[in-house]
Amino acid sequence: MPRTFKILRFDPEADAAPYFQEFIHEPRASDSILDALKEIRDEQDPTLAFRYSCREAVCGSCGMVINGEIALACRKQVDAIASDEIVVEPLPNLHLLKDLIVDMTPFWDAYERVEPYLQPEGSVPEKGHRIEEEKMEQVFQYITCILCACCYASCPVVSRDERYVGPAALAKLHRFITDPRDKRTWESLKKMDDPTGAWGCDTVFRCNQVCPKEVEPADGIEGVRRRLVAERVKRIARLKK
Amino acid sequence: MVSHDLLIVGGGLAGLAAALSADPKLDVAVVSKVHPIRSHSVAAQGGINAALANNPKAKDDTWQKHAYDTIKGSDFLADQDSAELLCQEAIPAMYELDHWGMPFSRFPGGVIAQRPFGGAGYPRTCYAADRTGQVLLHTLYEQCVRKKITFYNEWLVTGLVVRDGVCLGLVAYDLNTGKIQPMKARAVVFGTGGYGRVYKLSTNAYINLGSGIGMAYRAGVAIKDLEFVQFHPTSLIGKNILITEAARGEGGYLVNNQGRRFMEDYAPKAMELAPRDITSRAIQMEINKGNGFNDQYVHLDLRHLGREKIHKLLPGIQEVCIHFGGFDPVDKPIPIQPAQHYSMGGIDVDNAGASSIAGFFAAGECACVSVHGANRLGGNSLLDGVVFGKLAGRAASAYIKGSSGKTNADQALTADSEAYVAKVKELRSREKGENVYKLLNDLKELMSENVGIYRKQRPLEVALEGIKALREGYKEVGLHGASDRYSQELITLIEFDYMLDIAEVIVLGALTRTETRGSHYRTDFPVRNDDDWLKHTLMSWTDKGPKISYRPVVIDKYKLEARKY
Predict the structure, then answer these.
(1) Do B483 and A14 touch (CB under 8 A)?
(2) Which residue stretches of chain A have pLDDT < 70?
(3) Is the bond into B3 cis (omega within 30 degrees of 0)?
(4) Distance from the A238 Cα atom to the nearest Cα atom in chain B, whole angstroms
(5) pLDDT confidence tier of residue B408, bands split at 50, 70 and 90
(6) Would the CB atoms of A53 and B39 count as touching at under 8 Å?
(7) Same domain as B420, residue B322
């Protein structure tokens, strides 16, 4: 059946403010919202701008708001939407650049702040590191994160204070501190030991609700907090000696 | 003018591996049309090959056996010295990745886990569940963050700048500002990936338009073996999303509409783990014979593996089936059909990634060394990206240190950039011009229809004629809208021009090669012909069309044999 797609449009060089444009389009049965957007672009308006790449929910490009719900456009199937009208808007909490494209810079800056890379000791061990299966699998929940920023866009703390690093970055940090190979120091960890880091979270779990990959970033934030407390206790104990 | 010692184009595995191996004393930058972790490497699932001999069933595995499997898999078109280099370098590469944080799945005892894959004599595919490409790309990107590599994200390169056989840099379109500008470099490495979206049915990301290969071709580098297009046996019907070979490596069955494991008719020993060319042909043959479902697909059945094994080893596949197919592979077989997946051919380079243009290097899927020959083995593409990306980064660094500063580079760069700006202006002047997306969709239909798994002369000629007509159509296309910022239409206009070249080279190569080898199956020439065709196809751009030449295959150790599995 034909649907009405109400898509947010904005070209800063031509428009004073964003507005909604309506397109009538009949998607195929197997179409995702991303496919429908591409068909609208190909057939009706070649200027429509949105990000995409893999179309299979692993690249993290196409996070947007679909009928009020934050989702990956490629994974949201048109058939799963009952209403005739489908409203498509860009991710909130990030500055709008054009149509459905937002400026991801604050998200990537936050990601870099947690030092999102393994910090092992020494050089490459001959035959690699030995890690027990169960230990390695502890990080698997977090490595499924595709950095789509759906959690960042949904986070009420980010929306009121852009200095907060947000859920994805903290979940990434937790991925590393649970990795047996990682030997990062307090110097690195303490960067998240303040209200713009792990203590900023309001624990309202919006991030867990919107995450399309079941990462449950709030678990990671809790994990980082536990580690920070343990480190502090260790340091106090050391000072007393 | 933007200027760096080394510019790397492409933020996938090959590009990032090159950036990480480049001499740290050099000023290095990566140019990528998407944020690096959005690159198509992220979609690889099943694993990466290295003869670590960790699997209890692979205690006597060696890199030489890995090389033999790769060469046999290639239908003997791989250069044997290159395949050996790939397989030898694979082993230290895994340990380096592990040290960089790659979260490989583990075996008891803590060593990197390894699973069976198609065409391999031993289980030697290292993996992280079935998200290997994703976590590998993230791991390399993390290392780039650690090393503070400079990135130009969402910049699309429009062409190489070359004078007198020397690469001086490139011209690029900055999506965010909409500006086209020159970028100067003493050397350039391409890791721009494949051209999968020349086809309609492809497992590839929508962004894989393959313009990098076309840019090298136009700049004067030969394109090698482009007629060899890999069709992956198992893509989810309707979406053509990849269903990893690991699904069969872990024990999945291919079943036709009579409930029979039909691979016993095609590869009685290897069964479902025959190489991809053989398996794809078998599936297509079953569908053609009426043994498929709805004349479109067969079943990949995982149900006997059980919920626990599927959830632990193939969670990504389970997720794809649930969210994109609407069923759980624990309860139902997966409806699959073959789809375009990978390009064995590409930019002609040597073992160091060097091309015929001084200062221009390439690695990964856009390049052809050749290690994959006429058919790539599963688990060897991530490896190709990691190993040859690294070697190209090193070779480009060495080249820069040995080269003197170039004169007149600025003038040439500015001239090429201005020429491209003029081209875009002209496109925009045709406001009522033809819609480029229509042409792109026509090209995809044409290629999937006529240049698929089974090929023969007449359909290939039809494709060639169709490409000529599309080239005429391209002269009429226009650019719409008020601004060049984030104009996907402009991106498509830039890339489509090169896609026409790529399609032409694929089809001409397929038409000319009157034999069957690996992925290239000619129903009118159904046998391998080593006397006439044991050689690489090279195509060079001329204003009158592609010029064809040939080069012998390096065969120094492993003897030719019939390919039976």
Answers:
(1) yes
(2) none
(3) no
(4) 30
(5) confident
(6) yes
(7) no
Cross-chain CB nearest to B483 (options A13, A51, A61): A13
- CB within 8 Å: A77 and B34: no
In a domain, B358, yes or no: no
ipTM above 0.95, yes or no: yes
Tokens coding A142: 């977090």
**How many residue pairs from chains A and B have C-beta atoms closer than 8 A?**
183
Q: How far, in Å, CA of A104 to CA of B155, rounded?
A: 15
**A3-102 CATH pick, 3.40.50.300, 1.10.730.10, 2.60.40.290, 3.10.20.30:** 3.10.20.30
Pseudo-torsion of CA A54, A55, A56, A60, nearest 10°?
60
Residues of A in contact with B133 (CB under 8 A): 58
The pLDDT tens digits for B225-283 are 999 999 999 999 999 999 999 999 999 999 999 999 999 999 999 999 999 999 999 99
Q: What CATH number is attached to the domain comprising B316?
A: 3.90.700.10
CA atoms of B105 and B130, how far apart (whole Å): 10
Q: Is residue B170 part of a domain?
A: no
- Please give the structure tokens belonging to residue A186: 């307090």
Name the catalytic one among B115, B124, B248, B276.
Answer: B276
Cβ contacts of A61 within 8 Å, gap of 6 or more: A51, A52, A53, A54, A148, B34, B35, B38
Q: How many residues does chain A have?
A: 241
Closest Cα in chain B to A118:
B101
Note whether B334 and B423 are same-domain residues.
no
CATH topology of domain A105-240: Fumarate Reductase Iron-sulfur Protein; Chain B, domain 2 (1.10.1060)
pTM score of the predicted model: 0.97
Q: Is residue B75 part of a domain?
A: no
Task: Compute the nearest-CA separation of B143 from chain A (Å).
Answer: 6
Looking at the 3D structure of chain B, how many domains does it have? Answer: 2
A69–chain B nearest CA distance, Å: 16
* Distance, CA of B222 to CA of B505 (rounded, Å): 11
- The angle subtended at Cα B486 by Cα B482 and Cα B490, nearest 5°, is 75
Q: Is B276 a catalytic residue?
A: yes
Instruction: Clarify whether residues B332 and B423 are in a common domain.
Output: no
- Cβ-based contacts of A48 with chain B (< 8 Å): 488
The band of B405, judged by pLDDT with boundaries at 50, 70 and 90, is: low
Residue B536 lies in a domain: no
CB-CB contact of B354 with B222 (8 Å): no
- In chain B, % of residues over pLDDT 70: 99
**Closest by alpha carbon to B159, among B221, B218, B207?**
B218
- When scoring A32, A33, A47, A56 by the number of chain B Cβ atoms within 10 A, the one with the most, hence best to mutate, is A56
Element (DSSP H or E) covering residue A89: strand A85-89
Say whether pLDDT at B406 is over 80: no
Answer yes or no: do B320 and B423 share one domain: no
- Residue ranges covered by each domain of chain A: 3-102, 105-240
Dihedral sign, Cα of residue B269, residue B375, residue B132, residue A127: positive
Q: Quote the domain boundaries for residue B309.
A: 231-338
Closest chain B residue to the Cα of A100, Cα to Cα: B486
Which of B291, B310, B338 is where one domain is finished? B338
Residue at a domain's end among B338, B367, B393: B338
- What residues contact A112, with CB distance under 8 A and at least 6 apart? B145
- Is residue B348 within 8 A of residue B360, CB to CB? The reply is no
Instruction: List the single residue in B103, B108, B486 with the smallest CB-CB distance to A98.
Output: B486
